[in-house]
Amino acid sequence: MKLHYFIKIIKRNILFILIFFCAIAQVIILNHDSTSGEKISAILVQIEQTEEENNKLTQKIASASAIAAISDKVKKMGFVQNTTTVSLVSPLPIAFSAKTSL
User: What would the mean pLDDT of 57-79 be, rounded to a whole number?
Assistant: First the structure.
């Protein structure tokens, strides 16, 4: 009878020790996961910023290549840059004189 009682106490103590170690393991794992979550959030923000920058650079490249293509076509067609301005009408007065009334 004494041996049966002794085995029962040992089983109970082993169960309590197992529960205690499981609780400690859970705290350690949750602590690790929470700090990993912060790192993941920082990485996600960095990914978003990099994607935005890539989109802007892609647009700049497309714009520059379009302008360069147009410039090349214009040069091949023989167009030259016009440096003088020609007006077919005489300039209009900027302001009415004080003698004129509406």
Answer: 85
Query: Half-sphere exposure of 35 toward its Cβ, with a 13 Å CA cutoff?
Result: 5
Separation between Cα atoms, residue 19 and residue 17, nearest integer Å? 5
The type of residue at 93 is P
Could you please report the per-residue DSSP string of 48-96? Answer: HHHHHHHHHHHHHHHHHHHHHHHHHHHHHHT-----S---SSPPPPSS-
Q: Which two tokens stand for residue 29?
A: 């794992």
Confidence (pTM): 0.43
End-to-end, the C-alpha distance of the chain in Å comes to 125
In angstroms, the CA 91 to CA 82 distance is: 21
